[in-house]
Give the backbone structure.
Amino acid sequence: MSVDTRREITGLVYCPQQDAVVTASKDLSIRVWGPEWELLMAFVGHTALVTSLLLCPESGLLLSSSLDGTLRCWSLRTGDQVQAVSIPAGSDPPLTLGGPSTGGTFFSFSRTGVDFWAFTKLYELHCSLGRDASGPVRQILAPSTHPPYPVRILCIHGDSDVTLVAAETGAVLTAFRANGRVRCADYCISKEVLLVLTEEGTLIRASTLTNPVALLDEQRADWTGGQQSVEVGLPCCMALYSNIADPQRALEEWESLQQQLGLKRRRRRLQDDHKNSLNILTQFLQMVR
């Protein structure tokens, strides 16, 4: 047994799914040990003594309580912290965790009472990329922005799909589907331009003022210089360099683009409404007469 006995153990639980033992020590760490007492992973996050450990049988999550006044959920599959919950204000820190062997409820015990907890949901859907999403998300990018510009999220999913999402609301702003497999993408919010590099070496530039995006131009990688060709292969990455010399002017231009976007959306709603279409047609016929 190779467990470091110099670390005084404050909590212990067995995980049958992984045939592993989880220990909490006075050094505030939580360690997962394999069948041969080899260290599989370690969790760090509590800022005070870890008082108890509990394994949730339904989700397979590890629960920990601490004198720092938090309950934390850890994933033994990914090695990440899933959630941290603070106990109600005015309550003493939890000393012990317990619960039934089945189900999603458990309790925490302190010097002043017992609190009962229930798993309602571990995650909340923030955004749906669409019913026709071609595959799982391969990459999520958060292009650097500063107030007053809003935060945008760029999702590359499937082989050829790129979706722009509003980070705060989860609303899908626009989408793009390339003819080939997308290698990488980036987004310039001040110009409302999407840049996409495909594995075939094509650089695509598109406007994000429409949904789907409006193609501006395509450039095929050409590494020929004069009469001599330089064989360096296809581009494998892309970096977007942004240098705004006049921030105020750039902001005014962006606000102007947003106004254009609002007008396009209002016109689109009018066109989609069959009643408005009839009214427009009637006015047109009256003008012709």
Summary: The radius of gyration is 28 Å. The mean pLDDT is 80.
